[in-house]
Amino acid sequence: MARILIIEDEANNLDVARRIVRGAGHEALTATDGLAGLDLARRERPDAVLVDLLLPKLDGWAVTRAIREEPWAKQIPIVAVSALAMEADRARARDAGCDDFVTKPYAPAELRAVLSRHFAEGAVPKIGTKAADVPATGIEPSERLGRVLVVDDEDANVELIVRRLGGNGYETLTASNGHDAIAVAMKEQPDLILMDIMMPGLDGWQTTRLLKGDPKTANIPVVFVTARDRPEDVAAGFEAGGMMYVNKPVEPVELFARVRNAIFMKRLQDDLRKKNEDLKRLEGSRQELIGMLGHDIRNLANSVVAFLQLARMGELTPDRPEFSQLLGLSEANIAEVLRMVNALLDVYKMEEGRLEAVAGVNKLADIVKRSFAQLIPEALAKGITLVERVPAETTVFVDAGLIVRVLTNLISNAIKHTPGGGTVTIEAGSSSADSIVVRVMDTGPGIPEADAAHVFDRFYQTDSGRSRGGTGLGLAFCKLAVELHGGKIGVANGGEPGAIVEFTIPAASRVAAPEAVPA
Asked: Are 44 and 67 in contact (CB under 8 A)?
C-alpha cells in the first residue's frame, strides 16, 4: 500500500480525491494549503503527491519545486491537479517537476488511470515512471464505453474533451476539420461525433449534412459542441441532422450526460435496426418455407398416390419384383411428410415454451434402435448401411421420444446426403462424468465450413439442402430438443468430407436416485 499526499484547498474535491485513493487500496494523507502540504510532505515523506496548482499561501508550482529539492523526493510521482487546461499550464507544471496532470473536476476513472501509471493498485510506486512511458489512460479496451470522434479546429478544445472522455472510459478519435472528420467517420465508424460548428472549409453544419447523406455514416449521432447557441443556430443544427447541443465552455457533467445518452440511444437504434432486418429475413424464409413445404408434400404424396393407383388397377401386384421397392419408397415418403409436419409444429411449440422434456433413465442403444427402425426403408432404397456403435451399458437421462426424433432427423439428413452404397454410423461415449456425447457420421461430401455454424438455425439451408428439398426445420428441432436437455449440438468437422454431427445429453449418473433401467 502506497502513501499518497493530497494537497487540495477545496473540501469537496479533497473528499473525492481521498475516496478515489483509498478505493485504489492506498493510504491518503491530506493538507488544505501549500505551506501545510509542504510541511506534511517533509515530515511523512509520502510515496506520491497530488497537488492542486492554485493553492492558498503557497501555489502548487512552488510546492512541487520545494518537494523536488528534498533528496528523498527526487523520483517520487508528483501529479498536478487543476482546472487550468491550457498547454502552457501543463508545461509550467512539468517544468516545476510534475510527472502528470489531472483536470478538475475529478473524473474517478481518469485519476485511477493516472495513479496506475506510477504504481499498481494497492502497491508501492514504480519509481521513475513518467507519463510518456505509459499509454494515455490505464483503462483496458474491454472497459471502453464507446468510441467518440471529437471534431474541432482548436487544439486546446480537443485536448480538454479527449482527456475528460478518456479518463471516463471512452475511446477517442480526433479531426481538426470537416473533410478529415468525414474520412475518419467512414473508416472508424465511431459511436458518436462531437462536432464544432465554426471551422475552416466545411463548417459543422455542412459536415453533418454530408455525414447524414451517406448510408455508411448516416446512423452515427452528431452532438454539436459550440458557443453558437442562438435559437436560429440551434435550429440550423437540428435541420442538418444533429441530435443535441453542448455549449462552450464545456461543463464536464453536462458533456458526460450528453455523451452517455447519445451512445445509449444509438445502440438502442442499432439493435432495433438489426432486429428489424432479422425479422425481414425470417419472414422471407418463412414465406419460402411455406412454398417449399407445399411443393415437397405434393411431390411425396403424388408418389404414394401413384403407387396406390397402380396397385388398385392391378397393374402392380405383390409378385412383381418392383412392388417391394415401391412399397418401401412410399412408406419412406409418408414418414418424411410426418417428420416435416412434426418438426414444424414442435419448433413453434418449443419457441413458445409449450413443449417440455419428460426425462427418465433409458438405454441409449434402445433409443438408437428405435430411430433405425423408422429409417430402414429409406436406407434400403439407397443401399446405405446403418451402423450402431453404442456400448450396451450406456444409459442416459432424457425424454426418449424427443431424442428418438433428434436421431431420426439427423440420420435421415445423413442418408439424404450420402451417395448410394455409403454408410451412416452412430457412436457414443462419455463426454464428462455426467454427460454422454453422441455422434452421427456419414460418408457423404460433408458440410461446408461456411454453413457449419448455421445449419441448426430455423429455416437455414445449404445449397445442397435446397437441391434435395430440405426445409431447414429438422435440424432446428434437433438444436432446441438437445438444448431442452441442457446439452449442445454442432458440426464437428465443417469443411471436411464425411459430416460428423455431435451432441451431448445427460448421463443417467446425473440423477441422484436413478430409476431402474429397463431390461
From this structure: no
Residues whose CB falls within 8 Å of the CB of residue 465, separated by 6 or more in sequence, listed in order: 455, 472
pLDDT tens figures, 430-489: 888 789 999 999 999 988 888 888 888 766 655 544 433 355 567 877 888 898 898 999
Question: CB of 379 within 8 A of CB of 386?
Answer: yes
Question: At a CB cut-off of 8 Å and minimum separation 6, what does 258 contact?
Answer: 223, 244, 246
**Grid cell at residue 130:** 513518467
Q: Pick the closest to residue 390 from 440, 337, 343 (CA basis).
A: 440
Evaluate the omega torsion of the peptide bond into residue 249 and state whether it is cis, within 30 degrees of 0: yes
Residue 25 CA to residue 290 CA, distance in Å, equals: 63
- Residue indicated by cell numbers 496548482: 53
User: β-pairing, 395-398 with 360-363?
Assistant: antiparallel
The greatest distance separating any two alpha carbons of the chain, rounded to the nearest whole angstrom, comes to: 118
CB 107 within 8 A of CB 155: no
Positions of E strands within 33-164: 48-52, 78-82, 100-103, 147-151
* pTM of the predicted structure, to 2 decimals: 0.43
Taking the C-alpha atoms of residue 5 and residue 43, their distance in angstroms, rounded to an integer, is 11
Closest CA to 413 of 481, 488, 485, 343: 343
Q: Please tell me the distance from the alpha carbon of residue 516 to that of residue 152, in angstroms, as a whole number.
A: 76
CA–CA gap between residue 347 and residue 342 (Å, rounded): 8
Q: Describe the crossing of helices 252-312 and 321-351 by its angle, rounded to 10 degrees.
A: 150
